[in-house]
TrEMBL record:
Protein name: Arf-GAP with coiled-coil, ANK repeat and PH domain-containing protein
Extent of the ANK repeats: 694-726, 727-759
Domain PH: 266-361
Organism: Esox lucius (Northern pike)
Main function: GTPase-activating protein for the ADP ribosylation factor family.
Keyword DNA repair appears in the UniProt entry: no
Amino acid sequence: MKITVEFEECLKDSPRFRATIEEVEGDVGELESRLDKLVKLCIGMIDAGKAYNTANKQFVNGVRELAASSNKDEVIESSLAKFAESLQEMINYHTILFDQAQRSIKTQLMAFVKEDLRKFKEAKKQFDKVSEEKEAALTKNAQAPRNKQHEVEEATNILTATRKCFRHIVLDYVLQINVLQSKRRSEILKSMLSFMYAHLTFFHQGYDLFSELQPLMKQLGGQLDQLVVDAAKEKRDMEQKHSTIQQKDFSNDDTKLEYNVDADNGIAMEGYLFKRASNAFKTWNRRWFSIQNNQLVYQKKFKDNPTVVVEDLRLCTVKHCEDIERRFCFEVVSPTKSCILQADSEKLRQAWIKAVQNSIATAFREQGEEAEKLDRKSSTSTGSLDSGGEPKEKSLKGESALQRVMAIGGNACCCDCGQPDPRWASINLGITLCIQCSGIHRSLGVHFSKVRSLTLDSWEPELLKLMCELGNGVINQIYEARREEVGVRKPTPTDPRQEIEAYIKAKYVDRHFVRRPSDEELRSKVVSLSKQEKRLSGCSEHLPPRPPPPTPKLRPASNASAAAKGSEARRDSLFCPDELDSLFSYFDTSAKLRSMRSADSGIQNSADGSREMLATTPSTNSLPEAEAAEVPPMAMPATLPPPSPCKEVLIFSEPKEYSPGLQLYWASCARSLPDMAEALAYGAEVNWVNVEDDKRTPLIMAVQGGSLVACEFLLQNAANVNQQDAQGRGPLHHATILGHTGQVCLFLKRGANQNASDIDAKTPLSMAVDAANADIVTLLRLAKMNEEMREAEGPYMQSGDETYQDIFQDFSHMASNDPEKLNRYQQYDPPQRP
């Protein structure tokens, strides 16, 4: 320890000692003021920190309340709850930091000031006092006269005693000074070092906390990009809908109130009516009325329990009420009471009266035909047309799609980086991806990869089956065949994004790791695909069986016996006559078609013809009289027609050259999705044309093979749904010829042109009518009506009619999950060209 004041120097009490003492006392005084100021600042900092923590706690409570109010959105609720928990932890860390600051700065330094500096001040007081006494003794000793011996002795004794006392006091004072100077250094450093370690601990704890939170934040960041895109899309859709509604004429808005027995919520009709009270004052009150569960009820407020007006509509009747002063009134009469109601217009009154009458008729029909209705529910799926049916099966979404896709080999990890538990997929490649790789795939463009969420998006059944046909294992065998050979390491989830992005581009865009086949290998592959047994034999579980030979001659008189025999074996159509009549009546009477019919009466004729033909088809395979004039005589041959060229065995002839396009061509017919994916990886053109085989395309061959999934795979990879062969027939023509209802439904959803004609001037609809295929005729007619309705509504109507969408959705599910119900028709036999 360095001594500030020498002990020997203090005994001399020299001017040097006095100067040193004066300097030390000045330093100690300044130290005391600095320490007092630092302690006061620390107290202010701690108080401000406590106020910050209080405000931060209130903010975190607000985040928790927001999370609790977002219980309908699982992503927001779970994310905000996790964030609030992490912020609360940070508040706890802040509290610990401020407590440590109080202990290290405030407590320790205040103790140093109060104890050590207090001792120094007391020692200084004693030193100053004894110094004054010494000076007085010296002065008295010097003034003592020589001739007065007793005064001299007294002065000498006092001086001696004072010097002894001064010596002890000054040594203690110097000791206190040296100790204070030494302790000053250790106390200050100890206090500040403890405070800095508290900060170090605080920031380490915060780093560890947010390191655990970082994966969730990255995942949410990736989902946020998709949410922004979805929000922008929803905003555009809402703006279009807003503009569409704004341009509509609301003067006839009451015509939109229609009776719908098949409503999802069980409410057949609802709207506002005035009700006359049964009290003495006969007051009128406006209430919200509805017809549901065969009852007429009303509500004053939405949360109120409905008040039943008529418990059973089968026991009541409805009639106009013209004997009161108010207009547009009608009366519902039951055995126990009557209720007078008033609509807002004559059209609304007629609509309500008709709705009550229809509900009465429906109730009686349901009671009397329960057995037939149950049979129809078990045998068919007619979407919104089946009022008593079970809830319609919707597109698979969320965990259902995730579980089925993840069950495929290799799909449990990201196809490109190996990240476990992926939640995204590339639908045209058939692989699963993590959030980071999905963003990179999205940046490649849809011509390389189409990204969709396994948990947030809806999945059509044919698309889900496509994902289950391929998978990460199959695709990596194709796109990473030469990866080890070229010495490229597969990235891991912890690698920088730039490296993963470069790898994905090399894999899918440049296809550096694809092993190009030799000419002999390609030839062997094409020959193998062309010789598969199912394709050569022409039979498949997807192809419709050939029906028994028709009767020698079909006349109207023989229709009854044919219908009786057919009804015992099976239904020829998924729609019964009553359903078809309701269906086409819905389209014919809609306000949209009425406005079109006023401009063009041709639609009326088309709809009537469709309804008449289809209502007759289910009971007999002969065509109705109304369509007889439109169908050529050869459409219903008297004898069994010769085999159709489309169902004949496809003979493989040696091509001039072998190419990836030819492999794709035969793989599509053989329904081998891995070989199709391999051909595309080799560089095959998805719309490749086989000039040696009537200019057919892979999509047409997929139709010939009867695979709905193969068609979906080609369409997802940009196949042209309207490309025609040498006979002028597109995929929709071929699907109609073969009676593939599921493929017809798929092509119509993908924008196939049903008005296209082949070289014989035959459209798909005319082919379906010739083959008496009621389901395909129904789909084509509905698609045409929906298209005309969209054209009448203008550019703002994008999706078309909901009934049309429900019917096509039901056909899509049946084609993927129960195709046997659709494969029941004879195929169209095209006229033999000379």
